[in-house]
Amino acid sequence: MRGDRRDRGPDCPGRASPDGADRLPAGTGPEARSLTTAPPDAAAAPGLAREDRRVRIYEVGPRDGLQNEAQPVATSDKLRFIELLGAAGLTEIEATSFVRPSAIPQLADADEVVRALPRRDTIRYPVLVPNERGMSRAVGAGADAVAIFTAATDAFTQHNIGMTIAESLAAAEPVLNEAGRRGWWRRAYVSTAFGCPYTGRVEAAAAIEVGLRLAALGVEEICFGDTIGVAVPDQVAELAARAIEAGLPRERIAFHFHDTRATALANVAAGLQAGIRTFDASTGGTGGCPYAPGAAGNLATEDLVYFLDASGWSHGVRLAGILEAAGFISSVLGRPLGSKVGQAGGWDPATGAASPRP
Predict the structure, then answer these.
(1) Mutual orientation of helices 204-216 and 165-181 as an angle, nearest 10°?
(2) Mean pLDDT, the chain, as a whole number?
(3) Is the pTM of this model over 0.90?
(4) pLDDT of the residue at 349
């Protein structure tokens, strides 16, 4: 199928089963607080009930963070990275992608990775699947949660996967149907939701229209991606408000920001203000878009965790654990961390002491 030809996934790149819903709470995992602990009544989240100050962090480092690396990472190192992420308290870790191995050699070991995942009842490991062939591989490897992708512009989908938006949705439909039949949790990415490298600024209405079509296909979650890192907070607020007004429940909306132009955390703040509680991040700040030369990577999980902790949001992820995982993947890749918290470490407001850097 054409969708397996050269796709890079959402970054150049419903109904869930009762069991899956019970296995993962609506918020996050354990209630451990990080090193940058803020009081529960922190001013950044005034007047909100405790349950509405809970944020889900969806980790994309093992898949999106590693897919564009020049050299493949050893399977054993990927599994150790994933193990460290789970130990840090992350409950949703996108493990790999079942695209054609020749298209993304860095993820050619997807079958081996999924078979060897450190399974826990509290952790979900979605995998990116481009088409029915990829779905067959995912089933055979033992996956039980899936992510599919399209974009908000035809120009991007044609350059990325050789399809129009309509064709990409047609290719995704049988994947989603099969996943639903099996009781898998299903996510969908809408790439270039704010800007496209081929057509420029993307209006919120265009991204929302695609999101509504995906919702009609039964996905549990729709993630709007700032694929080339051009979004600003006003755009985030507009997209969130208009998507909710159009009928997408806020609990089914997620955002995926890149820090290409140092706006990722500002965009998270805008998303939180608009009522969105799910954000993607990549430990170590790895990943990025090959169609945006020189672009920085994804929002770093350690930067997001520090920001949420200091602002009084609950999420269940330990900053110290994330920094350990970030240090590990940095050593594997052979380069220093690009994230701010990765470079500076955390900070304890009770003592004024910085936590050790990875």
Answers:
(1) 30
(2) 88
(3) no
(4) 87
Structure-derived torsion over alpha carbons of residues 304, 310, 311, 316, reported in degrees to the nearest 10? 60
What is the extent of the structural domain holding 142?
2-354
Alpha carbon distance 323, 338 (integer Å): 12
Structurally, the chain folds into a number of domains equal to 1
- Residues 271 and 240: beta-carbon distance below 8 Å: yes
What confidence score (pLDDT) does residue 19 get?
40
Which residues make Cβ contacts (< 8 Å) with residue 347, sequence separation at least 6? 35, 36, 306, 353, 354, 355
CB neighbour class for 249 (10 Å; exposed up to 12, middle 13-18, buried from 19):
exposed
Q: Which positions of the chain have pLDDT values less than 50?
A: 1-6, 13-44
Whether 12 is catalytic: no
For the chain, the three-class secondary structure string (H helix, E strand, C coil) is CHHHCCCCCCCCCCCCCHHHHHHCCCCCCCCCCCCCCCCCCCCCCCCCCHHHHECEEEECHHHHHCCCCCCCCCHHHHHHHHHHHHHCCCCEECCEECCCCCCCHHHCCHHHHHHCCCCCCCCECCEECCCHHHHHHHHHHCCCEEEEEEECCHHHHHHHHCCCHHHHHHHHHHHHHHHHHCCCEEEEEEECCCEECCCEECCHHHHHHHHHHHHHCCCCEEEEECCCCCCCHHHHHHHHHHHHHCCCCHHHEEEECECCCCCHHHHHHHHHHCCCCEEEEEHHHCCCCCCCCCCCCECEHHHHHHHHHHHCCECCCCHHHHHHHHHHHHHHHCCCCCCHHHHHCCEECCCCEECCCC
For residue 328, which of 90, 78, 131 has the smallest C-alpha distance?
Answer: 78
pLDDT at residue number 235: 98
Q: What CATH number should be reported for the domain holding residue 186?
A: 3.20.20.70
Pairing of strands 200-201, 278-281: unpaired
